[in-house]
Specification:
globular; six-stranded mixed β-sheet; Rossmann fold; alpha/beta; 7 helices
Amino acid sequence: MKQTIRFEGVSKQYANGHQGLVEVNLEIRRGEFVFLVGPSGAGKSTLVRLLYGEERLNAGEIYVDQFRLRVLTHRQMPRLRRQLGIVFQDGKLLPSRTVYQNVAFAMEVVGASSRDIKKRVPHVLELVGLSRRRDNFPHQLSGGEQQRVGIARALVNRPSYIVADEPTGNLDPETGQDIMKLFVEINRIGATIIMATHAKDLVDRFQKRVVAIEAGRIVRDQLRGAYGYEA
């Protein structure tokens, strides 16, 4: 089966009348790295939330591999979530759980066995450079380390797609660059990356595919693009 994400004529209007997306058509193939850029309120976060099922579309259809999100049932949602690893700007870590426990929790909620958890979690913590911090709590970590825990949690169920919403927004430039290098490595080893961001310097430096959104519409789609409109 063709492994892609497809938006076909997708529109999202909120109860207050705000148009989050307007007739969006977009295809993201397996293995791509895509930056979603645009001003605040343009629709980037709406697109991301629709993708992982937090919001429901009003018109059109979204496909994630074999899933049709418009008709997805509550029972099918965990299967979709296995395909998608989500990284949030603020990490959304559980403060009373250690690094190891935060990452393990993502496997527990999808019903993974204790044996698989004990095997997989240390591997992912090593990948993001946090093996030595496994027994620390979130408040004992730097902002960059907390974001690495969020990335590890997103990775641990071996998703096909990593969806990141402003993952460097709360970080200083140097730490943000380190986090971006980690995403590039994750992409290199096989995961598709979809990242909403305002980080102009990082977008310009890493030169991946850039999809620009304004007022809910895609206004530019470039391979090896830049943040601005100057190509």
